[in-house]
């Protein structure tokens, strides 16, 4: 049985295009793999903290030497990593805010990128330890970034491929709802994006 981790980071609840797209991808997965288990984390509704000095200090303290306060400081990280390893498939909703990913999603990434757990430095340089995952990125952008003058501002796919790939997640499919802020494209953005999904 497959486990799916669905990460949401859109600010506008059910009106968020990235959430609508992520939900539609989940529906496809359920049709293709009956009985799959879905775990959903809405980083905006549930909240996800930024890294603090205490968090990073606790990361770098060996497990057996951590104080109760340090264990507390890494609770979010430990849970997020456990959920990550348990998943076979990740669906990550990614809205573009000010040309980048939401800070909540960045915070989640900061908590899962842990030396010795999700990546390590070996003889041949860094090695990702989160292997055999399929990742679907449900990316929503107000403008169009796959063609035209905005192409050079399309940082999100490169960043997410780099950071997830660094942790070993290299099988990444990007599904894009584009032009969600434009009157001519917003009505069909999700429908058009779903035509590109290979599930
Ligand atoms: C705070 C904020 C910043 C945004 N910045 C950008 C931007 O830099 N470029 C862009 O094309 N659209 C931008 N938009 C539009 C969003 O990308 C668009 O609404 C998209 O659908 C967001 O995903 P969501 O619907 O899941 O929230 C922004 C929207 C908000 C609310």
What's the layout of helices and strands?
Elements: E1 3-8, H1 17-32, E2 37-42, H2 53-59, H3 68-73, H4 75-86, E3 89-95, H5 103-112, E4 119-122, E5 125-128, E6 134-141, H6 155-166, E7 171-178, H7 189-194
Parallel strand pairs: 1-2, 1-3, 3-6, 6-7
Antiparallel strand pairs: 4-5
This protein binds flavin mononucleotide (FMN).
Task: Explain this structure.
With 199 residues, this protein is α/β, with parallel strands linked by helices. The chain has one domain: Flavodoxin domain (Rossmann fold, 3-Layer(aba) Sandwich). The protein contains 7 helices and 7 strands. The strands form 2 sheets. Strands 2-1-3-6-7 form a 5-stranded parallel β-sheet. The chain has a two-stranded antiparallel sheet with strand order 4-5. A hairpin with a 2-residue loop joins strand 4 and strand 5. The longest helix has 16 residues, at 17-32. It is globular. The model has no long low-confidence stretch (mean pLDDT 96). Bound molecules: flavin mononucleotide (FMN). Flavin mononucleotide (FMN) binds at residues 10-12, 16-19, 95-99, 140-143, 180-181.
